[in-house]
């Protein structure tokens, strides 16, 4: 994959926080999956990094999942809770709004990315601050919040270690859980040494690529930021409707620093993140750590309901984000994608993801879940999105590991149908319609077969135009001199006349034609 493709569209060369206000990497302008994947599979370093990381995580996951006798029951419970919640989503959303408001928070509704960015930018401006710290959040990446804030002169500082690596290198995330999975230790050391100083406390001159040294450099760099930034932005893994509680699960504790130290907290949360009660939450607190990081229990689980005087942020805003989710909900097959709890298990098991990497999917949601979620959220009108449902071998491994039993292959096939019946596939549709008409009538079929046999010597060996890609790797079968039906009429009649003696011979010859 070319550096430009690997890091998306970049509109400026200055990679300092100020420079990013003018230019930054985004997924916009990425090529369709086949093109991006072809390029990525030629990058042996990328393939090595991905193979090593995904195999380690998936082996760990398999070990801890195998410990539980009731894993399939937990999985069925997770699926049932999510389905029930999605069926009554309107009611639960209103319940959540009431509970958050009663607890001292303010709820904002955002129909799309533009509205969400406008709301958050306005809220940050109202504080008078120009810096914010961020908890790792897929929703804010989906709406490109950092870029919108930068346009308004507000710098967002990522505090998750992997997100920090991505931000410092002006790169793009390539994995839901481990956004810098495509980087190895040596690359990370170079990024820290070259870029940390432009964003705050520099990395030590003699920084090694030892994981402890890298973590310590990040800790020192971030600590200063935590202590002086007054506004934080987060997402949430879950939102409990009956108490208005937000829940964030993370492994480093950096998220908790953002959720407790600043004066103002703004959470951007997709409307599908709701669970009705704490009892429902209990199921997901068992499913998520085992499926994502392969841990029995999550290291840092932070929960908060509104504001508490004298304790933590004194201003809390919840931005509920639709951004295409209502459309997904309206699709009876596709809506199961909204059950996703972003564990990444489907990415780590996927043979396509392991070879192509996350950037090839052209979205913050890579891998199998990205292949079904992105085309649904953005539609399939443009080529990059229309190519995603085909980014799969349909092996079904993603469904097997999904903790909420999303039948990803079923949705992929459903979306392929949608793409195939869209305007962009008119020629294919017309060809299938004509074939259906010919095959639907015996006399029509006979006439076409006779006509085709008569001009068989003129048949091309290669299809013309865009269809040439099909025959580049396939042979067009020879057109027989006569159809089986016509042969059978003649030979079958002869067989009847000689009492069936030629039956076996006729069958064998017929088989060879
Ligand atoms: S689709 Fe399933 S396996 Fe994939 S990230 Fe979502 S919950 Fe995890």
TrEMBL record:
Presence of the UniProt keyword Iron-sulfur in the record: yes
Keyword 4Fe-4S belongs to the record: yes
Segments forming domain 4Fe-4S ferredoxin-type: 337-406
Cross-referenced InterPro entries: 4Fe4S_Fe-S-bd, 4Fe4S_Fe_S_CS, FTHF_cligase-like_sf, Helical_ferredxn, LUD_dom, LutB/LldF, LutB_C, NagB/RpiA_transferase-like
Annotated signal peptide: none
LUD domain ranges (all copies): 93-320
Residues covered by the Lactate utilization protein B C-terminal domain: 420-492
Region (Disordered): 1-25, 487-513
Annotated protein name in UniProt: LutB/LldF family L-lactate oxidation iron-sulfur protein
Alphabetic keyword roster: 4Fe-4S, Electron transport, Iron, Iron-sulfur, Metal-binding, Repeat, Transport
């Amino acid at each position: 994959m070319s550096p430009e493709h690997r890091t998306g569209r970049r509109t400026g060369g200055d990679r300092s926080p100020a420079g990013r206000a003018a230019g930054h990497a985004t997924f916009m302008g990425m090529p369709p999956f086949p093109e991006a994947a072809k390029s990525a599979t030629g990058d042996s370093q990328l393939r090595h990094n991905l193979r090593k990381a995904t195999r380690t995580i998936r082996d760990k996951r398999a070990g801890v999942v195998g410990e539980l006798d009731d894993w399939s029951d937990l999985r069925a419970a997770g699926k049932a809770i999510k389905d029930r919640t999605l069926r009554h989503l309107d009611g639960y959303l209103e319940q959540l709004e009431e509970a958050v408001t009663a607890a001292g928070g303010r709820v904002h509704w955002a129909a799309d990315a533009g509205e969400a960015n406008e709301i958050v930018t306005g809220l940050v401006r109202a504080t008078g601050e120009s810096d914010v710290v961020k908890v790792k959040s897929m929703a804010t990446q989906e709406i490109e919040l950092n870029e919108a804030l930068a346009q308004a002169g507000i710098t967002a500082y990522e505090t998750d270690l992997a997100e920090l690596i991505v931000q410092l290198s002006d790169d793009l995330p390539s994995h839901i859980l481990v956004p810098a999975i495509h980087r190895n230790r040596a690359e990370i050391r170079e990024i820290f040494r070259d870029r940390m100083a432009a964003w705050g406390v520099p990395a030590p001159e003699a920084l090694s690529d030892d994981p402890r040294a890298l973590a310590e450099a990040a800790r020192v760099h971030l600590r200063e930021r935590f202590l002086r930034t007054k506004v934080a932005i987060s997402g949430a893994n879950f939102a409990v409707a009956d108490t208005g509680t937000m829940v964030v699960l993370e492994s480093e504790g950096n998220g908790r620093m953002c959720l407790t130290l600043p004066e103002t907290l703004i959470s951007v949360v997709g409307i599908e993140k709701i669970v009705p009660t704490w009892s429902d939450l209990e199921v997901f607190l068992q499913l998520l750590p085992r499926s994502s990081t392969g841990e029995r229990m999550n290291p840092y689980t932070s929960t908060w309901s509104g504001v508490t005087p004298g304790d933590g942020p004194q201003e809390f805003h919840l931005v509920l984000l639709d951004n295409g989710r209502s459309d997904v909900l309206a699709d009876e097959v596709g809506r199961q994608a909204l059950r996703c709890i972003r564990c990444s298990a489907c990415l780590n098991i996927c043979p396509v993801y392991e070879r192509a990497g996350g950037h090839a999917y052209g979205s913050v949601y890579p891998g199998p879940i990205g292949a079904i979620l992105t085309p649904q959220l953005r539609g399939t009108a443009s080529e990059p999105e229309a190519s995603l449902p085909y980014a799969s071998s349909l092996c079904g491994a993603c469904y097997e590991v999904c903790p909420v039993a999303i039948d990803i292959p079923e949705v992929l096939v459903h979306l392929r149908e949608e793409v195939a019946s869209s305007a962009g596939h008119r020629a294919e549709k017309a060809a299938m319609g004509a074939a259906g008409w010919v095959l639907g009538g015996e006399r029509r079929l006979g006439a076409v077969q006779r006509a085709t046999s008569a001009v068989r010597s003129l048949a091309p060996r290669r299809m013309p135009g865009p269809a040439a890609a099909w025959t580049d790797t396939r042979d067009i079968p020879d057109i027989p001199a006569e159809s089986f039906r016509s042969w059978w009429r003649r030979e079958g009649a002869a067989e009847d006349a000689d009492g069936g003696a030629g039956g076996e011979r006729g069958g064998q010859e017929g088989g060879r034609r």
